[in-house]
Design brief:
Blueprint: H1 9-15, H2 20-27, H3 44-76, E1 79-81, E2 84-86, H4 89-100, H5 119-132, H6 134-140, H7 146-152, H8 155-166, E3 171-174, E4 190-193, E5 199-209, E6 215-221, E7 232-238, E8 244-249, E9 260-273, H9 279-316, E10 318-319, E11 322-323, H10 328-365, H11 372-411, H12 421-429, H13 439-451, H14 454-463, H15 472-495, H16 498-527, H17 532-554
Parallel strand pairs: 3-6
Antiparallel strand pairs: 1-2, 4-5, 5-9, 6-7, 7-9, 8-9, 10-11
Amino acid sequence: MANFYTDNEALKHYLSHPMMEKIVALKERDYADADKYDYAPQDYADAQDSYDKVLDIVGEICGDIVAVNAEDVDHTGPRVVNNRVEYAEGTKKNLDACRKAGLMGMAMPRRLGGLNFPITPYIMAADIVSRADAGFENLWGLQDCAETIYEFADEEQKQKYIPRVCAGETMSMDLTEPDAGSDLQSVMLKATQKEDGSWVLNGVKRFITNGDADIHLVLARSEDGTKDGRGLSMFIYDKRNGGVNVRRIENKMGIKGSPTCELTYKDAPAELVGSRRLGLIKYVMALMNGARLGIAAQSVGLSEAAYREALSYAKERQQFGKAIIEFPAVAEILSVMKAKLDASRALLYACSRFVDIYKVYDDIAKERKLELDEKKEAKEYSRLADAFTPLAKGMTSEFCNQNAYDAIQIHGGSGFMKDYACERIYRDARITSIYEGTTQLQVVAAIRHVTTGTYLNWIKDQLSLECKPFVQDVKETLDFMAQQFANAVEAVNGVNDPGYLDFMARRLVEMAGYTVMGLLLLEDANRNESFERSLRVFVKLGQAEVAKHADFIGNFRPEQIKNYLYEK
């Protein structure tokens, strides 16, 4: 029997991070639920034991059921029958196992049927599920949409919908349209308010993941005569009410078990969430941040799967009388894959911890007024979460694609065949740097934290911490990388040209990413020496990448930009 939680020691390392004690105490309101629910924890140790047991169940289901079904689901996929989606048989079995184990609505409060998990152990479950089958994670992980209902809907809507998600009903977020992809302010699906105050939706949505879900969050234009984001509102559509049909399922390169649908709305009844006009400006932004953290988890899970497939094959494959892992060229690829995987996971869980703290303070603020020190801390972690989310989504998805590519390379010609899982992993990985905001859009989101000093200030704080003597030399390298990054930021800011900043943004964000991830791995190595090898390999790689970008920026003249721009 396989267990994708217990066979990965890194997960318990992050579950026991020193910040978790504070996060759990805040989430549990100092364990106030212990007297109300027999499954609520009494203290931190009890909470950790609960997370450990649930993640063990996730790991077992993923190892013995989801991963076993992955190849068949990839080959058969879902289909449309009478305007409804019919999942592949393996997908049905996966969902049934997760429902029976109570793994839906994990982060929702107990009063609404959830487990009240912090974001970090929930994201850990998403990491595990993605390793087993990234396509299935798209269905299971959309339970995260319930967070938007919890944050912004009224109490009646929370009571109506969230228990259903916790009981196992699926969700989708219906944002994209044929003429509104990344530019969501162009959404034109029409929301019309009837005389009795109720709403109906009309129009088309495209590229909707799990588009035949039980409960939909829908972005629609509620204000006549508007053409920008200020005319958009958020709605809940309940499949039980009818009015939405699946026109087709897209024939995709990868994540084929996850139905990506084109939907037609015809007088579909819907409920307004929160206030009008805030659909894109407030609610979708919150929804997308959660989705991007989820894609970072998916990327890490895929990186894990790619690395394990490559490592296993390299140990078994014999050439010239020995296993190919004994050849330095192959061993180097594997060591870099492992370093990118470990650095990605370090960034993922740093980001999830920041999100945990600011979200729980937001929730507490609905119950009572925050103290001044709590407000200050909430603001700080909100800023860090805002900075680290695009960095995590961008860097982990790019590394995921690189690891999937290298897994194929290690398999050689065999990796090009459908006989090996790395072929599916390679196809599944490709979408991670595209959906929920391309890497280029993550750079747009991250660059202001470069220019305003969010990353540099965090880096300086990390460099001020003590480290053990065996990694002191690595810390000195990271200090030098940080200085190169600071110099590059100063040089670009000094040009005082928004176009020049846009052109250099990707390089600056990557410099921040390599430095941040190196420092996070340094922290991990300080706590657990098993991370030392990945730390050294990753920082060596990062040192070269930061130097490359520093050289490009330092020797580039603004007038040279014209050589890179499209001319009509």
